[in-house]
Amino acid sequence: MRAFKRYLIAGLLIWAPLVITAWVVTLLVTTLEEILPESLSAKALFGIDIPGFRILIVLAVLILTGLFAANFLGRSLVERWEQLLGRIPLIRSIYKSVKQVGDTVLAPNGQAFRRAVLVQFPHAGSWTVALVTGTPSAAVAQHLEGEHISVYVPTTPNPTSGYFLVVPASQTIALDMTVDTALKYIVSMGVVAPPKTLEGA
């Protein structure tokens, strides 16, 4: 029975990451392909089914859009488009919120999700790994004394949900690890241990 259990666990350790990776990739591919209508599929255009054809179209559209928006004319049209969306009540709120998050997270020189820290959560004396997202806005900072930082505390084992906290910078501990390593540590519930090197924040 012990040998059976050992072999079963060994098999799971090999197959589970492969199956989960394949599932995530399949889900991503399916989601990207569903963005475009069936009329733009390879079967509709050429009469044959080419896996991933619509993904290539999506990538091409993204690249061409980026090239177009990089020049003066493209920036002008994008600004006019954003002004138009800004006049629609419901669309305005959703679009601006999503755009602000995208600009913050994807900006090459941004500070969001660039470093990991330890914070006391959910109560004093209990520590967890958090990702720094920036500094509090002026409307929030004016009610706080001293330097504070904004952090995101991912949940285990699903890091896409979590908690947003504003904590004193002096009460955090900077971790000598990358964000990827921190996420692995969180997702694995501490099983995949990162290097034990800490430095005070």
Automatic annotation (TrEMBL):
It comes from Orrella daihaiensis. It holds the Pfam family DUF502. The chain crosses the membrane at residues 7-32, 52-73. It comes from the Bacteria. This is DUF502 domain-containing protein. InterPro entries: COV1-like. Keywords: Membrane, Transmembrane, Transmembrane helix.
